[in-house]
Amino acid sequence: MDLTREQYLYMSKLAEQAERYEEMVNFMEKLVAGSTPAGELTVEERNLLSVAYKNVIGSLRAAWRIVSSIEQKEESRKNDDHVVLVKDYRSKVETELSNVCAGILKLLESNLVPSATTSESKVFYLKMKGDYHRYLAEFKVGDERKEAAEDTMNSYKAAQDVALADLAPTHPIRLGLALNFSVFYYEILNSSDKACSMAKQAFEEAIAELDTLGEESYKDSTLIMQLLRDNLTLWTSDMQQFLNFKTRPAMNELILTLGLMQDQIDES
């Protein structure tokens, strides 16, 4: 039975409350499919779509990490019979991951990105597009991984161009983009220097304009700033293990700067 847009919205909220996220995805997909290209999603609808997919993909990504870890342990124990079973199970999880990513990427490319009219929604959807290509790059191998990484880079760069031009440094969507883009550099491209510089720049620019932050987005923005800082602290700690003594003072200066920045957040 086809429902109205308002009914799909209500059912999506109901599914969220019941923590039935796959059904939530289904309701939001139907809501999007029933919208005309000119009918851009509201902020509430947009956020519900994001929450639905984030929960579904989140459980699958967690499952993949656990299964991959078990696979490595079984291989180290030379447990060949178990390795065969685990590999087959991992392949099943990867198929599910691919299908979920394909679903949201199709929606983004065919409807959501083309219908975005505001800078905020453009950045939101392009960032989302980059996120799901990145999730593919986490488990794909060979040419498929390379293609997923290239698609991630292109999507994040397109989002970044709009964000830097039109969104304030403290805007939570711009900060979220910087957070995820820097994670992409660190985890997928293994470029720790670029990851740190991107996260640090986003953090510093936001700190400089913290006093202009509106009450409605203060909580979201400062939370993402904390995540940026946490990543920087972790990444610089990892990097320090590979640095020789001569380069450590510069790294220590960065860590001290991060501590001073945190003081500014805490005092706000």
UniProtKB/TrEMBL annotation:
Residue runs in coiled coils: none
Record site: Interaction with phosphoserine on interacting protein: R61, R134
Domain 14-3-3 per the UniProt entry, residue ranges: 5-249
SMART domains per UniProt: 14_3_3
Superkingdom in the source lineage: Eukaryota
UniProt-listed Pfam families: 14-3-3
PROSITE patterns tied to this protein: 1433_1, 1433_2
Protein family: Belongs to the 14-3-3 family.
Descriptive protein name: 14-3-3-like protein GF14 kappa
Organism: Actinidia chinensis var. chinensis
